[in-house]
Amino acid sequence: MNTIILKPRKEESVLRFHPWVFSGAIAKIVLDSHYPHAQPQEGELVRVADSTGKTLAVGHWQVGSIAVRILAFGVDSLPSDFWKQRIAAAWQLRQVSGLVREDNDTFRLIHGEGDFLPGLVVDVYHDTAVVQAHSVGIHVHRHEIARALAETLPQVKNVYYKSDDTLPFKAPIEGDKTGYLIGKAGDEACWATENGLQFRIDWVRGQKTGFFVDQRENRLLLEHYAKGHDVLNMFCYTGGFSVYAIRGGAKSVTSVDVSAKAIDLVNANVVRNFPDFTAHYSYAADAFDFLNEQKENKYDLIILDPPAFAKHRDAISNALRGYRRINSKAIEKIQHGGILFTFSCSQAIDKEMFRLAVFTAAAQVGRKVRILHQLHQPADHPINIYHPEGEYLKGLVLYVE
What we know:
By secondary structure, this protein is an alpha/beta fold. Helix content is 26%, strand content 28%. Strand 17 (301-304), helix 9 (316-333) and strand 18 form a beta-alpha-beta unit.
């Protein structure tokens, strides 16, 4: 195994258990005498050592600003059952958190650094685990990970690998990036259960792994506010908030998404759960265009759950403009005494930035706004306390007078 030698004092973040080593912290690379290449190959395991040569950790080598994603601290190699150990620990946490129940078979099993497995995401839908690799190292170990998943979780019969859009573009990736590693579901989709509601999950053609599991608890909160309201669910995707609103007793629910395929899934999910509900209206439309076309303040409960406006720090300024713009329009259009659920899933936008953007939007419209709840990601998206960058989902519930 090759060894990455850090510059003096650059080991401090590793000693504080931060799971990333940046390229600028590296002094040199010491190649193993049996190593056939002139440089480490992307995705291989490397040791990380301080400037004196003392081994600190083992991780995956990657080309880019994040040079090493650390898998284990204080060791010079990984045990043979490493993947099974880590997956078993993550499974135990989900059981302790009460996420695995008869009325809930939909959850995130592995949340990257939050489960001490940088670069790996695994979502479970009924009997299928959907795996995404965000690093080449995870791609290299995909078959071992799939076997460990099937051996650890009794309900997992299929493991689907979906990493076409998540692997670093810099890497000359070898092997399939999409397809079944274990098993095969009959029609490559299923009905999964979340808090007693059923949702059609299409992990092959859907966004991310097929569903946004991270809003489960926030959808449940919305349900408690929905009774008697005219609800507008913007950026609705598969309609999670819409279905919960109907169960909560909403008077009417309108779902809007720019994707016609997403609207088809919304309609299927509503019919599956509430076939007799006739006050659900769905539109394939741009969110800003839809709000601009509303001539009267019809809605008194609005959800804004847009895609990430900033996927990297260079886009922060434009993203903040986008959050101000969409929140300003929603605050302008909502009825007096209305409730606004507004979110940001942009990791580059922190809580203070997002809150200031919403404050600015409210001030521009000139309405009185109070914060009822400050929302975040659920327990199956844990945040490693040594990796605060893992806190990505921010939300506010606002009362608009």
